[in-house]
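Complex 268.
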Amino acid sequence: MTIHPELVEKVHVEAAKYPSLKGKGVLITGGGSGIGASLVEHFCAQGCRVGFIELNANVADETAEAIGKKTGNKPFYRAVDLRDIDALKAGIAALRSEIGPIRILVNNAGNDDRRPIEEVTPEYWDERFQTNLRHQFFAVQAVVPEMAEAGGGAIINMGSISWMRGAAGLIFYTTAKSAVMGMTKSLARELGERNIRVNSIAPGWVLTERQVERAKRIYQGKFSEYLEVQCLKEHLLPPDIARMALFLAADDSRLITAQTFIVDGGVV
Ligand SMILES: NC(=O)c1ccc[n+]([C@@H]2O[C@H](COP(=O)([O-])OP(=O)(O)OC[C@H]3O[C@@H](n4cnc5c(N)ncnc54)[C@H](O)[C@@H]3O)[C@@H](O)[C@H]2O)c1
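Predicted structure with nicotinamide-adenine-dinucleotide bound:
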Protein backbone atom coordinates (compact mmCIF):
# COMPACT_ATOMS: atom_id res chain seq x y z
CA MET A 1 0.00 0.00 0.00
CA THR A 2 1.46 3.34 -0.98
CA ILE A 3 1.09 6.07 1.57
CA HIS A 4 2.19 9.47 0.32
CA PRO A 5 4.91 10.50 2.77
CA GLU A 6 4.92 14.18 1.84
CA LEU A 7 1.24 14.53 2.64
CA VAL A 8 0.24 12.14 5.34
CA GLU A 9 1.14 11.79 8.94
CA LYS A 10 2.04 8.38 10.27
CA VAL A 11 -0.27 6.61 12.70
CA HIS A 12 2.15 6.27 15.59
CA VAL A 13 -0.19 4.46 17.96
CA GLU A 14 0.18 0.70 18.15
CA ALA A 15 -3.11 -1.09 17.47
CA ALA A 16 -4.89 -2.83 20.36
CA LYS A 17 -5.10 -6.64 20.45
CA TYR A 18 -8.53 -8.19 20.79
CA PRO A 19 -8.34 -11.82 21.97
CA SER A 20 -11.97 -12.47 20.93
CA LEU A 21 -11.08 -11.85 17.27
CA LYS A 22 -8.42 -14.54 17.05
CA GLY A 23 -9.30 -17.31 14.60
CA LYS A 24 -12.62 -15.75 13.54
CA GLY A 25 -13.72 -15.75 9.89
CA VAL A 26 -13.87 -12.17 8.57
CA LEU A 27 -15.26 -11.04 5.21
CA ILE A 28 -14.35 -7.58 3.92
CA THR A 29 -15.63 -6.05 0.67
CA GLY A 30 -13.49 -3.70 -1.41
CA GLY A 31 -10.42 -4.99 0.41
CA GLY A 32 -7.87 -4.40 -2.33
CA SER A 33 -7.01 -0.78 -1.61
CA GLY A 34 -7.72 2.25 0.55
CA ILE A 35 -9.59 1.74 3.82
CA GLY A 36 -10.46 -1.83 2.77
CA ALA A 37 -6.80 -2.86 2.49
CA SER A 38 -6.13 -1.42 5.93
CA LEU A 39 -9.13 -3.35 7.30
CA VAL A 40 -7.75 -6.55 5.80
CA GLU A 41 -4.32 -5.87 7.29
CA HIS A 42 -5.69 -5.05 10.76
CA PHE A 43 -7.88 -8.16 10.94
CA CYS A 44 -5.01 -10.34 9.65
CA ALA A 45 -2.78 -8.90 12.38
CA GLN A 46 -5.37 -10.02 14.96
CA GLY A 47 -5.00 -13.61 13.79
CA CYS A 48 -8.38 -13.73 12.03
CA ARG A 49 -9.06 -15.83 8.95
CA VAL A 50 -9.68 -13.07 6.44
CA GLY A 51 -11.29 -13.19 3.01
CA PHE A 52 -11.93 -10.16 0.85
CA ILE A 53 -13.84 -9.26 -2.29
CA GLU A 54 -12.21 -6.91 -4.77
CA LEU A 55 -13.04 -5.71 -8.28
CA ASN A 56 -9.48 -5.48 -9.50
CA ALA A 57 -7.69 -8.87 -9.48
CA ASN A 58 -4.16 -7.44 -9.80
CA VAL A 59 -4.67 -5.01 -6.95
CA ALA A 60 -6.17 -7.80 -4.83
CA ASP A 61 -3.26 -10.10 -5.49
CA GLU A 62 -0.65 -7.46 -4.64
CA THR A 63 -2.47 -6.49 -1.45
CA ALA A 64 -2.88 -10.11 -0.31
CA GLU A 65 0.83 -10.78 -0.92
CA ALA A 66 1.97 -7.62 0.88
CA ILE A 67 -0.29 -8.20 3.89
CA GLY A 68 0.74 -11.87 4.05
CA LYS A 69 4.39 -10.81 4.23
CA LYS A 70 3.76 -8.08 6.77
CA THR A 71 1.49 -10.01 9.16
CA GLY A 72 2.47 -13.63 8.49
CA ASN A 73 -1.23 -14.33 7.92
CA LYS A 74 -2.08 -14.15 4.21
CA PRO A 75 -5.68 -13.23 3.41
CA PHE A 76 -7.79 -14.97 0.76
CA TYR A 77 -9.60 -13.03 -1.92
CA ARG A 78 -11.98 -13.33 -4.85
CA ALA A 79 -11.99 -10.88 -7.75
CA VAL A 80 -15.69 -10.03 -8.02
CA ASP A 81 -17.74 -7.08 -9.23
CA LEU A 82 -20.19 -6.82 -6.36
CA ARG A 83 -22.68 -4.87 -8.44
CA ASP A 84 -23.54 -8.39 -9.66
CA ILE A 85 -25.29 -9.98 -6.68
CA ASP A 86 -25.05 -13.57 -7.96
CA ALA A 87 -21.29 -13.10 -8.45
CA LEU A 88 -21.03 -11.58 -4.97
CA LYS A 89 -22.80 -14.56 -3.42
CA ALA A 90 -20.62 -17.01 -5.35
CA GLY A 91 -17.51 -15.12 -4.20
CA ILE A 92 -18.66 -15.25 -0.57
CA ALA A 93 -19.35 -19.01 -0.86
CA ALA A 94 -15.88 -19.59 -2.32
CA LEU A 95 -14.22 -17.59 0.46
CA ARG A 96 -16.24 -19.41 3.12
CA SER A 97 -14.70 -22.68 1.96
CA GLU A 98 -11.27 -21.16 2.70
CA ILE A 99 -11.82 -19.12 5.85
CA GLY A 100 -14.61 -21.13 7.49
CA PRO A 101 -17.85 -19.70 8.89
CA ILE A 102 -18.03 -15.93 8.57
CA ARG A 103 -18.50 -14.30 11.99
CA ILE A 104 -17.63 -10.73 11.00
CA LEU A 105 -18.66 -8.84 7.87
CA VAL A 106 -17.32 -5.42 6.94
CA ASN A 107 -19.33 -3.93 4.09
CA ASN A 108 -16.67 -1.49 2.96
CA ALA A 109 -16.73 -1.24 -0.86
CA GLY A 110 -17.94 2.02 -2.33
CA ASN A 111 -17.02 4.77 -4.74
CA ASP A 112 -17.52 8.53 -4.42
CA ASP A 113 -17.06 9.70 -8.00
CA ARG A 114 -18.66 13.05 -8.82
CA ARG A 115 -21.12 14.05 -11.54
CA PRO A 116 -23.23 17.25 -11.83
CA ILE A 117 -27.04 16.93 -11.50
CA GLU A 118 -27.61 17.61 -15.22
CA GLU A 119 -25.50 14.61 -16.21
CA VAL A 120 -27.09 12.02 -13.93
CA THR A 121 -29.09 9.47 -15.93
CA PRO A 122 -31.43 6.85 -14.40
CA GLU A 123 -28.86 4.19 -15.39
CA TYR A 124 -26.06 6.04 -13.61
CA TRP A 125 -28.23 6.54 -10.52
CA ASP A 126 -28.98 2.81 -10.38
CA GLU A 127 -25.34 1.90 -10.95
CA ARG A 128 -24.24 4.21 -8.09
CA PHE A 129 -26.73 2.54 -5.75
CA GLN A 130 -25.42 -0.85 -6.82
CA THR A 131 -21.90 0.32 -6.00
CA ASN A 132 -22.67 2.11 -2.75
CA LEU A 133 -25.67 0.42 -1.12
CA ARG A 134 -27.30 -2.67 -2.63
CA HIS A 135 -24.39 -5.08 -2.09
CA GLN A 136 -24.30 -4.25 1.63
CA PHE A 137 -27.75 -5.75 2.13
CA PHE A 138 -27.10 -8.85 0.01
CA ALA A 139 -23.77 -9.56 1.70
CA VAL A 140 -25.62 -9.45 5.03
CA GLN A 141 -28.27 -11.81 3.67
CA ALA A 142 -25.54 -14.24 2.59
CA VAL A 143 -23.80 -14.44 5.98
CA VAL A 144 -26.69 -14.25 8.46
CA PRO A 145 -27.40 -18.03 8.58
CA GLU A 146 -23.84 -18.99 9.54
CA MET A 147 -23.59 -16.15 12.08
CA ALA A 148 -26.85 -17.24 13.68
CA GLU A 149 -25.78 -20.87 13.74
CA ALA A 150 -22.50 -19.93 15.44
CA GLY A 151 -24.38 -18.01 18.13
CA GLY A 152 -23.84 -14.50 16.81
CA GLY A 153 -21.78 -12.15 14.71
CA ALA A 154 -20.83 -8.57 13.98
CA ILE A 155 -21.63 -6.56 10.86
CA ILE A 156 -20.10 -3.17 10.10
CA ASN A 157 -21.46 -1.05 7.25
CA MET A 158 -19.32 1.76 5.87
CA GLY A 159 -21.23 5.03 5.72
CA SER A 160 -19.89 8.56 5.33
CA ILE A 161 -20.27 12.00 6.88
CA SER A 162 -20.68 13.51 3.39
CA TRP A 163 -24.50 13.48 3.53
CA MET A 164 -24.53 14.95 7.06
CA ARG A 165 -22.63 17.92 5.65
CA GLY A 166 -24.84 18.14 2.53
CA ALA A 167 -21.88 17.58 0.22
CA ALA A 168 -22.55 18.65 -3.40
CA GLY A 169 -21.60 17.05 -6.70
CA LEU A 170 -22.36 13.47 -5.66
CA ILE A 171 -26.00 13.41 -4.60
CA PHE A 172 -26.41 9.75 -5.67
CA TYR A 173 -23.54 8.87 -3.27
CA THR A 174 -24.74 10.99 -0.35
CA THR A 175 -28.28 9.61 -0.76
CA ALA A 176 -27.01 6.03 -0.75
CA LYS A 177 -24.72 6.68 2.22
CA SER A 178 -27.51 8.27 4.26
CA ALA A 179 -29.51 5.07 3.68
CA VAL A 180 -26.67 3.03 5.21
CA MET A 181 -27.54 4.53 8.59
CA GLY A 182 -31.23 3.61 8.34
CA MET A 183 -30.47 0.15 6.98
CA THR A 184 -28.04 -0.43 9.84
CA LYS A 185 -30.70 0.37 12.45
CA SER A 186 -33.34 -1.87 10.88
CA LEU A 187 -30.90 -4.74 10.39
CA ALA A 188 -29.81 -4.41 14.02
CA ARG A 189 -33.42 -4.67 15.17
CA GLU A 190 -34.20 -7.64 12.94
CA LEU A 191 -31.00 -9.56 13.71
CA GLY A 192 -30.64 -8.72 17.41
CA GLU A 193 -32.53 -11.81 18.54
CA ARG A 194 -29.94 -13.89 16.72
CA ASN A 195 -27.18 -12.05 18.62
CA ILE A 196 -25.93 -10.40 15.44
CA ARG A 197 -24.80 -6.82 16.03
CA VAL A 198 -24.99 -4.29 13.21
CA ASN A 199 -23.19 -0.97 13.36
CA SER A 200 -21.98 1.61 10.90
CA ILE A 201 -18.88 3.78 10.66
CA ALA A 202 -19.17 7.23 9.08
CA PRO A 203 -15.67 8.42 8.16
CA GLY A 204 -14.65 11.99 7.45
CA TRP A 205 -12.02 12.65 4.80
CA VAL A 206 -9.55 9.76 4.89
CA LEU A 207 -6.32 10.06 2.95
CA THR A 208 -6.36 6.94 0.84
CA GLU A 209 -4.22 6.65 -2.29
CA ARG A 210 -7.21 7.56 -4.46
CA GLN A 211 -8.27 10.55 -2.36
CA VAL A 212 -4.74 11.94 -2.30
CA GLU A 213 -4.31 11.53 -6.06
CA ARG A 214 -7.62 13.22 -6.76
CA ALA A 215 -7.01 16.14 -4.41
CA LYS A 216 -3.54 16.67 -5.89
CA ARG A 217 -5.01 16.63 -9.40
CA ILE A 218 -8.10 18.76 -8.81
CA TYR A 219 -7.54 21.04 -5.83
CA GLN A 220 -4.35 21.11 -3.75
CA GLY A 221 -5.91 23.53 -1.25
CA LYS A 222 -8.23 20.79 0.03
CA PHE A 223 -5.51 19.40 2.32
CA SER A 224 -5.15 22.54 4.42
CA GLU A 225 -8.80 23.62 4.11
CA TYR A 226 -10.05 20.31 5.43
CA LEU A 227 -7.91 20.59 8.53
CA GLU A 228 -9.55 23.93 9.24
CA VAL A 229 -12.96 22.26 9.61
CA GLN A 230 -11.58 19.43 11.76
CA CYS A 231 -11.14 20.07 15.50
CA LEU A 232 -8.06 17.86 15.42
CA LYS A 233 -5.38 19.15 13.05
CA GLU A 234 -4.23 15.88 11.57
CA HIS A 235 -5.47 14.08 8.47
CA LEU A 236 -7.29 10.78 8.96
CA LEU A 237 -5.62 7.68 7.59
CA PRO A 238 -7.12 4.26 6.80
CA PRO A 239 -5.92 2.70 10.10
CA ASP A 240 -8.00 5.27 12.00
CA ILE A 241 -11.09 3.68 10.48
CA ALA A 242 -9.83 0.10 10.66
CA ARG A 243 -9.24 0.40 14.41
CA MET A 244 -12.81 1.47 15.05
CA ALA A 245 -13.91 -1.55 13.01
CA LEU A 246 -11.75 -3.87 15.16
CA PHE A 247 -13.48 -2.62 18.30
CA LEU A 248 -16.95 -2.98 16.78
CA ALA A 249 -16.12 -6.52 15.61
CA ALA A 250 -14.65 -7.67 18.94
CA ASP A 251 -16.63 -8.94 21.92
CA ASP A 252 -15.47 -5.80 23.76
CA SER A 253 -18.42 -4.06 22.08
CA ARG A 254 -20.81 -6.96 22.76
CA LEU A 255 -23.82 -4.80 23.69
CA ILE A 256 -23.29 -2.10 21.08
CA THR A 257 -25.57 -2.31 18.07
CA ALA A 258 -27.74 -0.13 15.77
CA GLN A 259 -25.27 2.75 16.02
CA THR A 260 -23.32 4.92 13.60
CA PHE A 261 -19.86 5.95 14.76
CA ILE A 262 -18.43 9.10 13.26
CA VAL A 263 -14.65 9.04 12.83
CA ASP A 264 -13.77 12.42 11.32
CA GLY A 265 -11.30 14.28 13.53
CA GLY A 266 -14.22 16.37 14.80
CA VAL A 267 -15.74 18.09 11.77
CA VAL A 268 -17.93 20.88 13.15
N1 LIG B 1 -11.74 7.85 1.83
C1 LIG B 1 -12.65 8.63 2.38
O1 LIG B 1 -12.40 9.83 2.61
C2 LIG B 1 -14.02 8.11 2.75
C3 LIG B 1 -14.87 8.97 3.46
C4 LIG B 1 -16.13 8.50 3.82
C5 LIG B 1 -16.52 7.21 3.49
N2 LIG B 1 -15.68 6.42 2.80
C6 LIG B 1 -16.17 5.07 2.46
O2 LIG B 1 -15.22 4.10 2.86
C7 LIG B 1 -15.27 2.99 1.96
C8 LIG B 1 -13.88 2.75 1.38
O3 LIG B 1 -13.50 3.93 0.68
P1 LIG B 1 -12.02 4.17 0.16
O4 LIG B 1 -11.81 5.64 0.26
O5 LIG B 1 -11.08 3.24 0.80
O6 LIG B 1 -12.20 3.81 -1.39
P2 LIG B 1 -11.12 3.26 -2.44
O7 LIG B 1 -11.65 3.63 -3.77
O8 LIG B 1 -9.76 3.72 -2.05
O9 LIG B 1 -11.22 1.70 -2.24
C9 LIG B 1 -12.44 1.05 -2.50
C10 LIG B 1 -12.15 -0.38 -2.91
O10 LIG B 1 -13.40 -0.99 -3.25
C11 LIG B 1 -13.25 -1.63 -4.51
N3 LIG B 1 -14.52 -1.63 -5.25
C12 LIG B 1 -15.18 -0.54 -5.73
N4 LIG B 1 -16.24 -0.93 -6.47
C13 LIG B 1 -16.25 -2.28 -6.43
C14 LIG B 1 -17.08 -3.27 -7.03
N5 LIG B 1 -18.09 -2.93 -7.84
N6 LIG B 1 -16.82 -4.57 -6.79
C15 LIG B 1 -15.77 -4.95 -5.99
N7 LIG B 1 -14.93 -4.05 -5.43
C16 LIG B 1 -15.16 -2.74 -5.64
C17 LIG B 1 -12.22 -0.79 -5.25
O11 LIG B 1 -11.63 -1.50 -6.33
C18 LIG B 1 -11.25 -0.43 -4.15
O12 LIG B 1 -10.25 -1.41 -3.97
C19 LIG B 1 -16.32 3.35 0.90
O13 LIG B 1 -17.56 2.79 1.25
C20 LIG B 1 -16.37 4.86 0.97
O14 LIG B 1 -17.59 5.37 0.51
C21 LIG B 1 -14.43 6.83 2.41
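The helical segments are 34-45, 57-71, 85-99, 122-150, 171-191, 209-218, 222-229, 238-249.
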